[in-house]
Amino acid sequence: MMGRLESWKLALERLRTAQPADWAEAGRLVAEIVRMSTDATLRQAAEQALPVLRQAADTDDHSVTLAAQRRVGVILEVVHDLTAPRFGRRNAMPMQLSSEDRARRMLGLPLAVQLTCDDINQAYRRAAKGKHPDQGGSAQAFIDLAAARDILIHPGAHKDA
Questions:
Q1: pLDDT of 160 above 80
Q2: What gap in Å lies between CA 151 and CA 107, rounded to an integer?
Q3: Could you tell me the domains of the chain?
């Protein structure tokens, strides 16, 4: 797949810099991208560009050719993003939160701060105002908030899920 992306990138760059631009060739290339791309973003950008490129091939209207150039630029940006080298942990799976950290997030509390029972109860009351079934919230969300409060007040009693 990466080889195909590289060849599309080269062809798009060549088409974008050509004077005058061959919009019929650009339309054929973009139609191939629509048919063969496995990336949804690239396919969507190509599908949106195809009608403009076909129109640019049939007319000499300057506004249409400008729109076609912009569409080719958008496709090229997506291809550049897909072919850019990935460093570090960008594509790594996010770290799983512990049950205590999930409870803190649910109550809107900071993750790395020592909390008192009063802090936890105040956060619970704030969060519960909008989640209570009598106030238009769902019963399950309210139960989840209560469980989060219990996890934070009695941290040793609950295992990580």
A1: no
A2: 11
A3: 2-83 (no CATH), 99-157 (1.10.287.110)
